[in-house]
């Protein structure tokens, strides 16, 4: 009887051990599956991290750099990861921008924000400064809270944004000035008409002033509209056979009305080109306005036409103080304005840019011959035929 009880106890003990073994094996299998899943996840993360086109880094709570990807090395101008790993991100930040990273540090690790975004400046290995958009999130790794950061170079985007902001400010100012003057002139004009029954010289002068201001406003609005069209590739040309005399003799009445400059025509105005009359008129107006603005002491502006066999060259010549060589390469850039002498006038910096784009769309050329104290000649060349 004791033997039977002993055997029963032995069997029960073996069953318990077998259950424990199975349970242990199950836990081991689960743990193995979890480890495998973790390893797969790590491999996937490492692949994405290394192949990202944006700069990636992992940072510790004290802003030490623990890992970087090739894109961040390239962004900052370094060759080896070892040059960055172990350093602090503040080492690559100008001192005046350190507060940006301290804000990131406070928000992520002290206030436990799930993510943080900032725009800041970083210094490359060669000392060049670049503007970056930084997005960071927190993640847990081996019981430690780390930061995963994506860095995008936005230097060009930021420059464009600043130019747009500047453009809007300048445009608002430039549009407001002639509108205010026009409003005042029209108001005075109406008062005089109400009081006087005869049209006198004062009325005529005011009418001329109103026309000048309206013309200036039209040019500004035209520049704004054309700039937008050029940017979107929507500027259309209506080209046909065109006598340059039609355009040149009627393009600058606003200058004659102003009475400060004389427009002289030289060369063969009867020459014809294949072009859009309205657009070529716009180019000439821009070039003449430029001469008026930047050569106030040169009261003679010459429009010269030369026959180049299969092409025609049109030049707008003034005898002003000219433009220094350092500014010449940028004259046809968008929003660029010569600021050698700020009191010579203001503008949106669009006239020459738009003129250049119009001439290029005609298959022509545009350029400038100038120098300090030598006057300025803006010229463009158009084909006679298709």
Number of helices: 9
**Radius of gyration, rounded?**
36 Å
Helix content: 40-55%
Give the averaged pLDDT, no decimals. Answer: 79
Order of helices and strands: HEEHHEEEHHEHHEEHEEHEE
* Bulk shape: elongated
Quickly give the structural class: alpha+beta
Portion of residues in beta strands equals: 15-25%
Quote the distance from N terminus to C terminus.
Answer: 120 Å
Tell me briefly what this model is:
The protein contains nine helices and twelve strands. The protein has 386 residues and is α+β, with helices and mostly antiparallel strands. Helix 8 packs antiparallel against helix 9 (351-361).
Textual characterization of the structure:
It is a single chain. The longest helix is centred in the N-terminal third of the chain and has 50 residues, at 2-51. The protein contains nine helices and twelve strands. Helix 4 packs antiparallel against helix 5 and helix 8 (277-294) runs antiparallel to helix 9 (351-361). The chain is α+β, with helices and mostly antiparallel strands. The strands form three sheets. The chain has a five-stranded antiparallel beta sheet, with helices on both faces. The protein has a five-stranded mixed beta sheet with strand order 7-9-10-12-11, with helices on one face. The chain has helices spanning 2-51, 70-76, 98-110, 155-195, 201-231, 244-248, 253-258, 277-294, 351-361; strands at residues 55-59, 65-68, 115-123, 129-141, 144-153, 240-243, 262-267, 272-275, 300-307, 311-318, 365-370, 376-383. It is elongated, with a radius of gyration of 36 Å.
């Amino acid at each position: 009887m004791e033997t039977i009880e002993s055997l029963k106890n032995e069997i029960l003990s073996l069953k318990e051990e077998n259950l424990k073994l199975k349970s242990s094996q199950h836990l081991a299998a689960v743990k193995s599956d979890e480890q495998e899943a973790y390893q797969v996840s790590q491999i996937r993360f490492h692949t994405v991290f290394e192949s990202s086109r944006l700069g990636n880094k992992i940072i510790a709570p004290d802003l030490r750099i623990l890992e970087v990807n090739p894109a961040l090395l390239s962004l900052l101008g370094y060759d080896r990861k070892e040059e960055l790993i172990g350093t602090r991100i503040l080492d690559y930040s100008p001192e005046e921008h350190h507060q940006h990273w301290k804000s990131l540090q406070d928000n992520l690790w002290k206030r436990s924000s799930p993510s943080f975004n900032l725009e800041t400046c970083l210094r490359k290995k060669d000392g060049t400064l670049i503007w970056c958009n930084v997005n960071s999130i927190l993640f847990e790794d081996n019981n430690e809270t780390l930061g995963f950061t994506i860095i995008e170079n936005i230097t060009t985007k930021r420059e464009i944004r600043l130019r747009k902001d500047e453009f809007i400010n300048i445009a608002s100012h430039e549009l407001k000035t002639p509108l205010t003057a026009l409003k005042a002139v029209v108001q005075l004009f109406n008062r005089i008409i109400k009081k006087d029954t005869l049209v006198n010289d004062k009325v005529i002068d005011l009418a001329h002033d109103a026309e000048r201001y309206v013309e200036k406003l039209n040019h500004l609005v035209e520049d704004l509209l054309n700039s937008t069209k050029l940017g979107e590739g929507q500027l259309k040309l209506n080209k046909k056979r065109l006598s340059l005399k039609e355009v040149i003799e009627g393009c600058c009445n606003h200058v004659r009305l102003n009475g400060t400059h004389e427009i002289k025509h030289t060369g063969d105005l009867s020459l014809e080109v294949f072009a859009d009359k309205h657009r070529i008129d716009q180019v000439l107006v821009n070039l003449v306005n430029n001469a008026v603005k930047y050569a106030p002491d040169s009261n003679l502006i010459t429009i010269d036409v030369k026959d180049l066999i299969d092409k025609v060259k049109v030049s707008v010549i003034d005898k002003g103080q000219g433009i220094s060589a350092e500014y010449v390469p940028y004259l046809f850039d968008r929003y660029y304005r010569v600021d050698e002498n700020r009191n010579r006038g203001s503008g949106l910096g669009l006239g020459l840019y738009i003129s250049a784009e119009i001439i290029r769309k005609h298959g022509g050329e545009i350029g400038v011959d100038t120098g300090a104290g030598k006057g300025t000649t803006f010229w463009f060349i158009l084909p006679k035929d298709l």
